[in-house]
Fold this protein.
Amino acid sequence: MKISCKEASCICDKSQYKEASLWDIIKLRFHLLYCKVCRSYSKKNGELTSLCDRAGLTMLSEDDKKKMKRELEEKL
Amino acid sequence: MAKHKLQPDNWVDLYADYLFNYAVSRVSDAEIAKDLVQETFFAGLNSAKNFKGDAAERTWLVSILKRKVIDHYRKINSKKGKAEVRINYNSDSEVEGDWLEEQVADPFSKDGDHLIENEELGSAIQDCIKKLPQKQALVFKLKTIQGMSTEDICNELDINPSNLWVMIHRARTSLMGCLNENWF
């Protein structure tokens, strides 16, 4: 049941992408009960996720960028 | 102050995502936004000799992109009839109220403010991502922005999952620190 802070932060990261198993999350929750450092990391991590969601970030795919570069180089 | 110089070779790497975000939030169509960014780069090349070096490269490119966005709306509006403002009296009664008064935008709506705030947030995040080591930035972007699965990223970049999570962890920690001052 007990996990290290390193494991806890890893589970916390995974859970930001919904890739932590239920059992992992239970272990994380238990860890957070007594570990203040991880509690604050976990809180900030969640905030970062919601900031990223709110910003509605988009990006170009690598293929698109390569194409752009090629076309730009032709004009140089 | 040192004069700014243009370096078109690096434009795509440095500014493509930033400009693309900017364009997408204004034209709401990824394909059109992509074209606008590319046109901006071309226009930038063509008028590079007019660049006086007063502004930063990115600011200069954004100002070109702004013109491109305006031109885009001019073009789609110039087709006959499109420029008219049409008011639909709702025949489908999904929205309550047919009266014009009920269709006016809510003056207390915070949508506009949110839009601006989110845009600033977006560029703050982009700036912070730019400060990360290249591979970390790539992994973070693929995972968070493109929402790619762990497996796909690992295959594409030839790394193993625990590698990936270490990079994600480092990226997230640096981003928290970088955004800390303004956004938490």
